[in-house]
Amino acid sequence: MGVMPIDKLLISMSLPMMISMLVQALYNIVDSIFVSRINEYALRAVSLAFPIQTLMIAVSVGTAVGMNAFLSKTLGEKDFAKADTIAANGIFIELISYVAFALIGIFASGPFFASQTEISEVREYGTVYLTICCTAGIGIFMQTTFERLLQSTGKTFYAMITQGVGAIINLILDPVLIFGYLGMPRMGVAGAAAATVAGQIVAAILAVLFNVKYNKEIRLSFKGFRPNGRLIRHIYKVGIPSIVVQAIGSVMTYGMNLILEAFGAAQTVFGIYFKLQSFIFMPIFGLNNGMVPIIAYNYGAGNQERVVKVMKSSIRYALIIMLAGLTVMEIFPARLIGLFNATPEILVIGVPALRTICLSFCFAGYCIVVGSVFQALGNGVYSMVVSIARQLCVLLPVAYLLSLSGNVNLIWWAFPIAELMSLCMSTFFLVRINKKIISHIGESRPQEQAADGDKGEE
Fold first, then answer.
1. Is 137 helix (H, G, I), strand (E, B) or coil?
2. By CB neighbour count within 10 A (0-12 exposed, 13-18 middle, 19+ buried), where does 242 fall?
3. 125 and 267 in contact (C-beta within 8 Å)?
4. Would you say the C-alpha torsion 430, 432, 436, 440 has a positive or negative sign?
5. Distance of CA 362 to the CA centre of its chain
6. SS3 state of residue 185
7. Which end of the chain is more exposed for a tag (fewer CB within 10 A), N or C?
8. Maximum distance among all alpha carbons in the chain?
9. Is residue 102 part of a domain?
10. Are 297 and 72 in contact (CB under 8 A)?
């Protein structure tokens, strides 16, 4: 990570993750396509479960991002014993997080759906689906953790295999369990949840095996293990802002569902949009997963030139991906929505929704990459501030005010408006972090740079 040409390194580390995340996005879409064949209420229930699922992913991924950045920086400093301890503590706090979400699944699923809809069928479908996803969700936490351990040492190919295998298992089991093929009972929405967690658990087992066999830079051992509060705090220094950034998306989605409840099928349309946009955003997140350890490693090694080159290349690739997504959504909105067994009402609401919301893609790629740069440099609080401002201070209030017009088509304009604000704030913080940290990389020891970063953050 310190010597390979930047574009070659970035592509070699990011492309496997981009492919695996595209596969993940594909099986999320296929999952919803199968569920839509049950009926619209089943599809709406799965869509309304999205905020809790997003929150679960936010905690697992955010914690792993904090661990990954800390690990990569420590490996760049050649402190391998400390890296082993960081990995063990990261696994420990991921297990604690799973237990918390299992309890949420048991006790909060019913009230969560009751707060969003009065339709009893949607409540029943949603409660069953979410309870299974949470209580059997250990796979997503362990999969995420052990894949990030592979990424921190540049072994993204193995992470791609684990995600790909998990996705394929989900794709195979979806129709079998939902509709009762091959002698299996017809489980309906519960089958969709069971297929999802089964894919995650298998992927997690594979990720563990790959780490044990191939990841020799990190030696995992829990003999005499005790949680290290100092290291856990350091993991969460980057991890909590990342968790908050993603969790805010969960709050935003929940708030939008409440706003859209008065507009009939608009909730279903919003859920369909999120499934479709994941197919565009997932490659950006894969790009970020390859970028973050490269920046963190070269930050720890004091190589300013490589840090800057990685940033510029990542932004360029993100803009290309987003422009491709924008083009597809503008030209083929009806065909995309039609994949989900759409009723005429869903099409009437959905076509203008997709064409309006995707305008935000013009700015989103840049903002996502810049936010990950902040995290890689230990200043994840900047990402958190931008995300809070975009989704809670702008998007939801603007969407609510536009909903008062009674015209659902106006509500979707809240997305490009919020993203434009995000562009301005992200650029402001990038200029600031460049002045305080990036321009000084290599001028002092990594420990001193980290201290400078803390002061800048304060």
1. coil
2. buried
3. no
4. positive
5. 19
6. coil
7. C
8. 67
9. yes
10. yes
Cα dihedral sign, 446-448-452-454: positive
Alpha helices by DSSP H, listed for 115-188, are 120-135, 138-152, 156-179
Here the tokens at position 261 are 């409840």
What is the count of structural domains for the chain? 1
- In-domain check, residue 449: yes
Find how far residue 319's CA is from the centre of its chain.
Answer: 18
Residue 330 has pLDDT above 50, yes or no: yes
Distance, in Å, from the CA atom of 244 to the CA atom of 222, rounded to the nearest integer, reads 29
> Tokens standing for 158?
């193995």
pTM across the whole model: 0.81
User: Which tokens is 334 given?
Assistant: 């009806």
Query: Which domain does 371 fall in, by range?
Result: 6-457
Residue 148 maps to a domain = yes
Other C-beta atoms closer than 10 Å to the C-beta of 9 total 21
Would you give the DSSP letter of residue 3?
S
Residue 76, pLDDT above cutoff 80: no
pLDDT exceeds 80 at position 59: yes
SS3 content of the chain, % helix, strand, coil (to 5): 85, 0, 15
Q: In 10 A of CB 399, how many CB atoms?
A: 22
In this structure, is the dihedral angle defined by the CA atoms of residues 21, 162, 239 and 316, taken in order, positive or negative? negative
The residues, any chain, with a CB within 8 Å of residue 1's CB and separated by 6 or more, are 9, 72, 76, 154, 293, 294, 297, 298
Among 32, 11, 9, which residue's Cα sits nearest to residue 278? 32
- Look at residue 69 in the predicted model and tell me its pLDDT: 80
The answer to whether residue 71 sits within a structural domain is yes
Amino acid at 320: I
pLDDT, position 444? 57
Tokens matching residue 263:
């507009």
**Residues written for the chain:** 458
Owner of token pair 């914690």: 63
For residue 298, which of 449, 400, 180, 121 has the smallest C-alpha distance? 449
Summarize pLDDT for 94-113 with one digit per residue, the tens. 999 999 999 999 999 999 99
- pLDDT tens for 333-390 read 999 999 999 899 999 999 999 999 999 998 999 999 999 999 888 787 898 899 899 9
Q: How far is CA 264 from CA 156, 260, 261, 354, 363, in A?
A: 43, 7, 6, 17, 30
